[in-house]
Amino acid sequence: QVQLVESGGGLVQPGGSLRLSCAASGSIFSINNMGWYRQAPGKERELVAHISDGGHTKYADSVKGRFTISRDNVKNTVYLQMNSLKPEDTAVYSCNAGIKPTDSYYFPVSYWGQGTQVTVSS
Question: With contact defined as beta carbons under 8 Å apart, do 4 and 10 qualify?
């Protein structure tokens, strides 16, 4: 059983910073891509940032230059450093990871965390 547990959300003023963490635990043989998604009320879920197992990153245009995704392969953890936060960044942020629980898996399985609320407001 694989679990992704997020932490670090909360309320922050515009221009402030937050750092989200997502730790994978359980039966893990390998972790491929990891990413952060967000969903605001009344909107569809969107990709915020993505990092490959080789460290290549991709960002939504709306967060480029403000957010940084990173990962610690020893701790099986992905981070999202969010700076210069704006009210429009308010959403539930969820992490996603492609994980092979054992070496018998040919393709990774997509796992999701439970989500953490980020609210940017004065």
Answer: no
Cross-strand pairs, 111: 97
Beta bridge partners of residue 119, listed in sequence order? 11
Q: Identify whether the C-beta of residue 100 lies closer than 8 Å to the C-beta of residue 109.
A: yes
119, containing H or E segment: strand 116-120
Cβ–Cβ under 8 Å, residues 48 and 85: no
Span 46-101, pLDDT tens digits: 999 999 999 999 999 999 999 999 999 999 999 999 999 999 999 999 999 999 99
Positions of E strands within the chain: 2-7, 10-12, 18-26, 30-39, 46-51, 57-59, 67-72, 77-82, 91-100, 109-112, 116-120
How far apart are alpha carbons 80 and 50 in whole angstroms?
10
